[in-house]
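pls design
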């Protein structure tokens, strides 16, 4: 026994002929309850018999139960058709019930994805036309929201929260849709042309896949990519088109990647690592010199020069550290954020330990605070020994 899912589409005018032909031949046929009347009429006409019934998400268990007793066909039609298909597939999989699709294989999935992407485009247009807030927005207004959504997506990815990642990806996707809609209003392109251009760019830059180049490693791929950008797109210079608005850590990594693409790079991370010690030594020497921070007085003639030199040496130290991260394939932005999270967690835990022992964290001297911090750090991954003792 099985369930057959037939993709019909959202509107009658776009119903695929192959799916309509597959409707003929009788048998129990169900349709979603929100199918437009014109599409319902088309389905009934193609089926040649009355439809067995209308179904919604709550009816999925009953449909699958009936599928265990005999063949059942379900039209994936109307605006909520793709969601119904996902629900039926999940339920059928849990019960080891075979599911057939029309069209077969990945073509069916492509139909579902295409319909949902088009539906989002229509919703975006409605909001732009009818919502007072959306009507007032311009690209410069929206970009701050776009950046915010990307950071929220980065956070849930770092924390491996897959359900939240699904939600945040939708927020980022909507930003692309809305900005593409604004582009369309300016007659400078639309969502389709945006997708087509990036597709063309990906093909053009991956000549080791779609052309005659070869690349066996990620480093070789980057070299092919950089050559394609310079040769095919007329870009000049090593550091062309690097956005100055990138966060400093990402900007440093991008600059280093461009230099590496033309061969200006350490061969191995062990060659790059001593540079950190070198830059650290230069900063330490400056701090220990006659114009040290502790010895500089307000109004001193050398104070401005000291600030500049400190910034200079500290920048070199950070740049060298980012370079080692790049060689280790570690994202410095993510690594630093994770370090911040660890620090926050440990300090909060240390303060909690102090409170449990009747001590106020803020009033403790640094040495005592550090002792609590070390205890909090050693207790990560399970209950603190103190907690375990308290519960015995």
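designed seq:
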């Amino acid at each position: 026994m099985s369930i057959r899912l037939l993709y019909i589409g959202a509107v009658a005018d776009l119903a695929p002929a192959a799916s309509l032909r597959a409707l003929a031949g009788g048998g129990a046929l169900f349709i979603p309850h929100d199918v437009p009347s014109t599409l319902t009429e088309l389905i009934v006409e193609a089926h040649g018999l009355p439809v067995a019934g209308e179904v919604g998400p709550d009816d999925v268990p009953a449909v699958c139960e009936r599928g265990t007793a005999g063949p059942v066909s379900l039209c994936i039609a109307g605006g909520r058709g793709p969601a119904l298909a996902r629900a039926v597939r999940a339920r059928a999989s849990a019960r080891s019930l075979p599911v057939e699709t029309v069209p077969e294989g990945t073509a069916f999935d492509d139909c579902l994805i295409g319909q949902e992407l088009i539906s989002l485009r229509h919703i975006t247009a409605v909001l732009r036309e009818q919502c007072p807030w959306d009507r007032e927005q311009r690209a410069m207004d929206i970009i701050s929201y776009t950046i915010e959504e990307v950071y929220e997506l980065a956070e849930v990815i770092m924390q491996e929260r897959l359900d939240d990642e699904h939600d945040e990806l939708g927020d980022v996707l909507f930003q692309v849709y809305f900005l593409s809609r604004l582009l369309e209003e300016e007659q400078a392109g639309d969502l389709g042309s945006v997708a087509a251009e990036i597709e063309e760019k990906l093909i053009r830059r991956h000549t080791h896949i779609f052309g005659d180049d070869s690349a066996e490693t990620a480093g070789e791929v980057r070299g092919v990519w950089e050559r394609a950008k310079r040769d095919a797109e007329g870009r000049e210079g090593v550091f062309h088109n690097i956005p100055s608005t990138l966060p400093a850590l990402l900007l440093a990594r991008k600059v280093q990647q461009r230099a590496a693409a033309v061969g200006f790079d350490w061969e191995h991370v062990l060659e790059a690592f001593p540079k950190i010690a070198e830059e650290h030594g230069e900063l330490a020497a400056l701090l220990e010199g006659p114009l040290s921070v502790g010895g500089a007085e307000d109004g001193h003639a050398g104070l401005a020069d000291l600030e500049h030199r400190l910034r200079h040496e500290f920048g070199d130290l950070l740049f060298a550290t980012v370079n080692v991260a790049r060689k280790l394939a570690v994202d410095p932005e993510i690594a630093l954020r994770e370090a911040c999270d660890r620090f926050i967690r440990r300090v909060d835990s240390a303060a909690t330990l102090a409170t449990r022992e009747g001590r106020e964290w803020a009033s403790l001297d640094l040495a005592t605070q550090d002792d609590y911090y070390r205890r909090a750090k050693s207790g990560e991954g399970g209950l603190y020994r103190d907690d375990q003792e308290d519960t015995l």
